[in-house]
Design a protein that fits this description.
Shape: globular
CATH class of the largest domain: Alpha Beta
CATH architecture of the largest domain: 3-Layer(aba) Sandwich
CATH topology of the largest domain: Rossmann fold
Strand order of the largest sheet: 3-2-1-4-5-6-11
CATH superfamily of the largest domain: NAD(P)-binding Rossmann-like Domain
Bound molecules: UDP-4-deoxy-4-formamido-beta-L-arabinopyranose
């Protein structure tokens, strides 16, 4: 097995991926600047895995820190790059911080890959690159649309940057375009811990139920969907994490057919906001306090994945249901709020 650098490894998807990497026998090295995560996540990973991975607090925007990191870990066989700012709304007000952080750090990592003759990279991308898709379900060849936010643009430009570097320097790269990762590890040792008021639906649902938030606002019920609320492809974070291990194995074993490959990570099933609320009420046997308000700017009506390529080429399938993810998210929320 291999020593793997995991940037953003204390984040939501990063931490769950570290757990699956250890389970698969790899040795993840966690790199994180703790700007949107806490060191206590390491305890959760150790509680699940029985191993405490090496942790390096590094700001990947600082070139010298990135150079020192790659000098120290000269035997890594691959990199999984999660580290990025990821709040769509926040990025509209802070575009320069998003471009500097998300793209600056990526350039420095690619330069170190070039200089150390490393070639295996898994890139954390997003269905955001598709914008409001013309056709559903969304395939990997669906057109990439003009980004609706600087965040989404950093993912688009990130993919373009990586493709150019891959061609010039013989990298082998897989970009994974996540739909809507939700949930938490079933052990409730790690989960989603957004700092401040959650921007995403599911943590807002569980925080409302936990009494941390007064009421959930549903952003519009006048969309062209079966119940008027937006439709998304909610995928369990553990399924997303396992896909990273499969993709890494594809590169380590040189099974990739192209130097640059892209896969959608979704369940292939869309759920509306009201259906997510119904799922929560079902699994928690409680009523959620919510109200319908006006639409949120930048929301697309519907987005869900065509998972054929990941299923048939990668050999990966999402296994958990919406109810599984919501139940795990609720268990995690109750754990961190000390609710029975
Ligand atoms: C989902 C739905 C809202 C909050 C996210 C990430 C994006 C990308 C894809 C990673 C929408 C509605 C939400 C609330 C609501 N992932 N909603 N009330 O916008 O699909 O994008 O997943 O790259 O980065 O941001 O997810 O959870 O914000 O919204 O009604 O309080 O829930 O309108 O329809 P989104 P989301």
């Amino acid at each position: 097995m291999a020593q793997i650098l995991v940037t953003g490894g204390l984040g939501f998807i990063g931490s769950h991926t570290v757990v699956e990497l250890i389970a698969a026998g790899h040795e993840p090295i966690i790199v994180d600047n703790l700007s949107n995560s806490t060191i206590s996540v390491l305890d959760g990973i150790a509680a699940i895995s029985g191993k405490r991975p090496a942790f390096e607090q590094v700001d990947l925007k600082e070139k010298s820190q990135v150079q020192d990191l790659f000098k120290k870990y000269s035997s890594i066989k691959g990199i999984i790059h999660f580290a990025a700012f990821k709040a769509v709304g926040e990025s509209v007000g802070k575009p320069l911080e998003y471009y500097e952080n998300n793209l600056g750090s990526l350039v420095y990592i690619l330069q170190e890959m070039r200089d150390h003759h490393l070639d295996n990279l898994i890139f954390s991308s997003s269905c955001t690159v598709y914008g409001e898709a013309d056709e559903l379900p969304i395939t990997e060849s669906s057109p990439v649309k003009v980004a609706i936010s600087p965040y989404g643009n950093t993912k688009q430009v990130g993919e373009e940057l990586i493709q150019a570097a891959s061609e010039a320097h013989d990298f082998n790269v897989i970009s994974l375009r996540y739909f809507n990762p939700i949930g938490a590890h079933p052990s409730a040792q790690i989960g989603e811990s957004p700092l401040g008021v959650p921007l995403n639906l599911v943590p807002f649902v569980t925080q409302t139920a936990a009494g941390v938030r007064e009421q959930l606002s549903v952003f519009g019920d006048d969309y062209e969907t079966r119940d008027g609320t937006n439709e998304r492809d909610y995928i369990h974070v553990v399924d997303v994490a396992k896909a990273h291990v499969v993709a890494l194995g594809r590169l380590l074993n040189r099974k990739n057919e192209d130097a640059y490959e892209v896969y959608n990570l979704g369940t292939g099933k869309g759920s509306t906001v009201l259906e997510v609320i119904q799922s929560f009420e079902r699994v928690s046997a409680s009523k959620l306090n919510y109200k319908i308000v006006e639409r949120r700017r930048g929301d697309v009506t519907a987005a869900y994945a065509d998972t054929t390529k990941a299923n048939e080429v990668l050999g990966w399938f999402a296994e958990k249901s919406l109810d599984d993810a919501i139940a795990d998210a609720w268990r995690w929320e109750k754990k961190i709020r000390n609710i029975d």
